[in-house]
Amino acid sequence: MSSTEAYLLDSIRLAMENVRERNTWPFGAVVVRDGKVLARAVNEVEANCDPSAHAEMQAVRAASRALGKPDLSGCTVYASGYPCSMCLSAMYLAGVKAVYYAYSNEDGEPYDLSAERGYIELARPLAQREMTLAYVRARDEGIDLYEAWREQQRQ
Amino acid sequence: MSSTEAYLLDSIRLAMENVRERNTWPFGAVVVRDGKVLARAVNEVEANCDPSAHAEMQAVRAASRALGKPDLSGCTVYASGYPCSMCLSAMYLAGVKAVYYAYSNEDGEPYDLSAERGYIELARPLAQREMTLAYVRARDEGIDLYEAWREQQRQ
Q1: What are A77's strand-pairing partners?
Q2: A28-33 and A76-81: which strand pairing?
Q3: Interface touch B135/A68, C-beta < 8 Å
Q4: Residues in chain A closer than 8 A to B132 (CB atoms)
Q5: pTM for this structure?
Q6: Do A99 and A79 touch, CB atoms closer than 8 A?
Q7: B14 to A24, A134, B11, B102: CA distances (angstroms)
Q8: Could you give the ipTM of this predicted complex?
Q9: Cα–Cα distance between B31 and B33 in angstroms, integer?
Q10: pLDDT truncated to tens, each residue of chain A (155 aa)?
Q11: Annotated catalytic sites of B, by residue?
């Protein structure tokens, strides 16, 4: 068995524990760097009352805490299911180099466990989105926010 | 001044506090439902050592805790800057109905504060992505993970 398959099996076992022991979502994720496991996590949306607490997201957060910096450059994430657009973006923005997943959206579809929704919304033209997204230019008095930020960065 | 502008000004003031008092990212967000402010948050990536702790994300999480459920149906988010793909996805998946922002990506571009990166990566064909994303079908012995989940749901 390759190490990729072994880590994916670990993510599946985490997911299975979430189903069996906590009666909740079947998703697990493992973060690895240089052959060392930095984090293992499961979906904790219900446990934490946090809609962002997907397995990959919790794994990214735990790995960052383990490393002591919000930068996962050189890390690989092994996820039981295809990551949603939130988690994929989080992993990308954190510098994760690769993501492997064991169950595709097609595998999840018959169980209503596909992660397609977010991607579909993002791909829609703005006028056809379900969620309104609109620019309302507002500015406070005094120095501009971004100018203040630039000044602060220069100090 | 419209209520939209007032909430956006609040998000800008939160962002300014983050710059002035904590010397960090100029982003703030406010979550409102039925005219009531549920959450006010700032970017806490550095404070929390959490790459996902953008202002909108922290606001979504705080609003969910305030409501006691991971469901923000009927909520509106006011963000100082254009939300990144992670936060936009999180808000959409949580059921947020509308998002208004005061600074566009174009406004942020000269300050390197545009949120385009994640969207650009998601729009790339898989083969051209910076972050590898690959399906490696793995299955544990015994009952299938998703079948186990379905069984659990039926009980």
Answers
A1: A31, A99
A2: antiparallel
A3: no
A4: 97-99
A5: 0.97
A6: yes
A7: 36, 20, 5, 13
A8: 0.97
A9: 7
A10: 999 999 999 999 999 999 999 999 999 999 999 999 999 999 999 999 999 999 999 999 999 999 999 999 999 999 999 999 999 999 999 999 999 999 999 999 999 999 999 999 999 999 999 999 999 999 999 999 999 999 999 98
A11: 56
Calculate helix-pair angle for B145-154, A3-22, nearest 10 degrees: 10
Tokens 């056809």 belong to A128
Q: Do B4 and A104 touch (CB under 8 A)?
A: no
Whether residue A56 lies in the annotated active site: yes
C-alpha distances in angstroms, B77 versus A66, B89, B100, B134? 31, 13, 6, 34
At A152, give phi and psi (nearest 5°). Answer: -60, -40
| Active-site hit among A46, A56, A141, A151 | A56
What sign does the CA torsion over B106, B107, B111, B116 have? negative
Q: What is the per-residue DSSP string for B18-44? A: HHHHH-----EEEEEETTEEEEEEE--
User: What is the C-alpha to C-alpha distance for residues B132 and B48, in angstroms, rounded to an integer?
Assistant: 27
Give the type of residue at A32. Answer: V
